[in-house]
Amino acid sequence: MGIYLDSANPDDARRAQELGFIAGVTTNPKLIAQTGRPGLEVLSELAEIVDGHVFYQLTADTVEARTDEAWAAYKIRPDKVLLKVPSTTENLAMVSRLIPAGIECAMTAIYSPAQAFLAAQVRASFAIPYYSRLKRDVPDAPLVLKRIVDAVRDTQTLILAASFKSVDDVIEALAVGIQHITLPLDLILALGEHDLTRRDIADFGQHLPG
């Protein structure tokens, strides 16, 4: 199981790295844009901060341009960069060429078991469904998510769920078999907290001597 930071903010990455249990950092075009900096520059800095993988999403308009973008991102830190590629048939074909060349890839924007199944066929490291968007846009979202998990069972492809809004969302995803999640920093911090725990800490303190 792994928990990733979903952010392109270097300060968030430093705080998450200090926690000691973060597996890496995932970014997306919106998060990169919020930094106001070039994407590959942000990728390079994040790779220096965190110990694990840094996920970088390809955005170029054509397969040829995305392939060039993939190599440019990969060469920044071949040991850490993991490319996110939206799940379309032409992108799956592209990934089927990138992975044998040594570039680690994840298929993102997964909304169906069929997409997850094909991600496994091209030997993607991860298939990434968007949990909150699935709940909003897909009927029987929990069942679909379970079928996505089942579609890659016993393959090399792991499910890494993204787009969470609350701790309850995270628990619901874990209940259907999701083992890897990516979260914004505030939600990572919230996972370790509970009002009753704070109550008990205060209660224990009342019984300390002096």
What can you tell me about this protein's structure?
By secondary structure, the protein is an alpha/beta fold. It has one domain (2-206): Alpha-Beta Barrel (TIM Barrel). It contains 11 helices and 8 strands. The protein has helices at 10-19, 29-35, 39-49, 63-76, 89-98, 113-121, 131-137, 141-151, 167-175, 185-191, 195-206; strands at 2-6, 24-26, 53-57, 81-86, 105-110, 126-129, 158-161, 180-183. An 8-stranded parallel β-barrel has the order 1-2-3-4-5-6-7-8, surrounded by 7 helices. Helix 1 (10-19) packs parallel to helix 3 and helix 6 runs parallel beside helix 8. The radius of gyration is 19 Å and the shape is globular. The mean pLDDT is 94.
Quick overview of this protein structure:
With 210 residues, the protein is α/β, with parallel strands linked by helices. The protein has eleven helices and eight strands.
- The sequence of SSEs as H and E is EHEHHEHEHEHEHHEHEHH
Total number of beta strands: 8
Spans of at least 5 consecutive residues with low confidence: none
Count of discrete alpha- or pi-helical segments spanning 4 or more residues: 11
Order the strands across the largest sheet as they lie in space: 1-2-3-4-5-6-7-8
CATH architecture heading: Alpha-Beta Barrel
**What percent of residues adopt helix (DSSP H or I)?**
40-55%
Query: For the record, what is the CATH homologous superfamily label?
Result: Aldolase class I
Radius of gyration: 19 Å
Approximate strand percentage: 15-25%
How many separate domains? 1
Largest sheet: 8 strands, parallel, barrel
- The CA-CA distance between the termini, in Å, is 43 Å
CATH fold name = TIM Barrel
On the 0-100 scale, what is the average pLDDT?
A: 94
